[in-house]
What does this fold into?
Amino acid sequence: MNINKLKYTEELLGIIFLYLGVAFVLMGILCFAGVIEPSAISLVQLPAILGTVYILTGTAFLIVSAVLKTTAVSKRKLYNELLAHGDKVNGRVEKVYLQRYTQYGRRSPYRVIYTYTYQGKACRGKSRLVWEKPNLTDGDLLTVYADAFGKSAVRI
It folds into this structure.
């Protein structure tokens, strides 16, 4: 997957859970095939039970992956909806930072925290994942697309 297409943490986590789910399901299949057997110190001594545990765990990971993917799709839809129909307001960059604890392919994304006023109320928002360092500094002005539900989006 192209790193620049990953815009949400849920997408990254979805990939991780997908790989874990597939690995566990494959381990379960290998247990049923007799390729993998329980060790002597294992609490589970029957390959069929061990295979079942692996497959159930893998299935749970795959379900979590699907939920995360669905969440990311709904966030993308909301983002596009805000850009198309949200009210344009002026915002100000509060902070640009490298999100070090999130990595994909040894690269970490940037995030932009911004503030804006909408309908007389001061609000704060956070950008999607940005994989190239944005040309923004603290205090810069930017256009924010907001709605009455407190949701906002910015183009970086």
